[in-house]
Amino acid sequence: MTRMAGDRRGAANAATVLRTVLEHGPVARSGISELCGLSPASVSRQTTGLVRAGLLRELPEPGGRPSSGRPRIPLDLHTGAVGGPVTAGLHIGVPSSTFSLVDLRGRILARRGFPHPDPTDPALPLRIAGELARFLREFDTGRPLLGVGAALGGWVRPDTGVVVRHPALGWRDRPLAAELSGALGLPVHLDNHARAVAGAEVLFGHPAARRSLVHLFIGNVVDAAFGIEGAVHQGPDSAAGDVAHLPVPGSRTACACGRTGCLQATASDIALGAEAVRRGIVPDPSVPLLVDAAATGDPRADRLLRERARAVGRAAALLLDVFNPAVMIVTELSSLLHEGYLDEIRAAAVAQSHVCRDPERIIAPHAGPAVLPEAAATVLLGPLFQDPAAVASGGSTAGP
After folding, report:
1. Distances (CA, A) of 40 to 27, 31, 32, 46, 59
2. Reduced to 3 states, what is the DSSP secondary structure of residue 110?
3. pTM above threshold 0.70
4. Residue 324 belongs to domain with CATH number
5. 108-115/171-174 β-pairing
6. What is the pLDDT averaged over residues 22-46?
């Protein structure tokens, strides 16, 4: 049904109230009005609706007893164990998927990994959906389930739920959101994982990310995302963020595209794992194995990870020079686990950049190693904070 202008205004006001409580809660209704600029009557109307929808809850007054005069009952997001809505998160990687349950503040309540028996299996989405359904049944406590936020690498169109291109999984023009939703019986929101992480930073992370950010994702797939004034850029056909062939200054690594020095060929987990095997550091092309080897004192592993970090930093410098964001987030496994590798990225970026002289602008995701489970759920939570009624009305009261 088409919304009338008043409905759109109401949706915008509800979103403003919900985001104000996210940022400042617990907060009284009068405080919400002062913080967001809406009239007390509008705030009262919207908070009443959001409480009824189960997204906000009233908390006991400070001191445990009513105060004299008009009560200032604090409101907060409904994250309580009884009745607080949750979102399922699904991150689909190449070797495995990760499932999560996340509350309205992005806090992870449960998580589990699912290794892919065969990443090229055409039936992989159905296998993933079956395992996710089992996960949701196991952790079903009766809390309302809003749906599933799903994220993966490659070219994804969130408006249609279609994976346009994911070479590592062999997917092209695949209606993944519809497949998953049909198998699970739940609403599924889909997006690229670099944009999902950027969205999580805007909602739950560093305050500067709401002004402007660049996110660089280094995994089996290399992606980027860009945001300004709280909005993550999609671009025509949602194709923004393809940096696989961004040149890495100083790299001579051959790329399948016929050029040398491309970021994907130089610094991806696939390239790093293959190089680790070639040097005899690990028996299998696994970056987690390489990180473990470095943590146990293998100097060859540490040296290779630092080489990768410097290459990432040189590529990051190009993005810093183009966008000059308030903050740059880098998702890369070794730097998530050990800050010394993040320092290598920072040093290389500042040395290469023509505009960035502040290495502290380059940060790891606020969620640390839990970045992907949180970001996947944010694919649904982001729209919720933009239009609470539209998303909340599509949820379920039980697991599948």
Report:
1. 14, 9, 8, 10, 19
2. strand
3. yes
4. 3.30.420.40
5. unpaired
6. 94
